[in-house]
Every structure is written in structure tokens, then in C-alpha cells.
Design goal:
mainly alpha, 4 helices
Amino acid sequence: MTDQKVASASDANPRDPLRGPKSYFPFIEAKYGRTIEEWIAALQPQAGRKHMEQVAWLKEQGMGHGHAQALVHVFRAEHGGA
């Protein structure tokens, strides 16, 4: 994992709301009980796999499709997951 900080629910600023796929992050943390940092770390062994394979892996962990898509998008774009 890189040293780059991942936006989490606790980082939310009402004047600067999360946008795009990251707008799902507070809901992902609340619903699945893990921080975004934990999900990104859990995804690291899946780096280099196809996008939909990474989504499928998250769904196997119990995550919904839309939440998995958002998390994988950020993982691939910002954390070397492609």
C-alpha cells in the first residue's frame, strides 16, 4: 500500500463533500464495518487482476455490487491495483 491517505467517513467535511466513487466511502465503512484503508489493504493481493475479478472478489466478501465497483475504481486509479 502506498503512503497516500485514503478518504474515509471520518475525513468528511460538509463544505467539501466526497465526489464520484469516493462518495460511497462513508456508506461502505458504515455498512461493512471496515475502514477504506482496510479494504484497500485487503484488495492488495488482487492487484493486477481484471476490474471485474476484483469486484467479484469483494462481492465474495459480502460487499454489494455498486460499493465494490466504487472501491475497485479508486483502488485501480490511486493505489496501483490495475
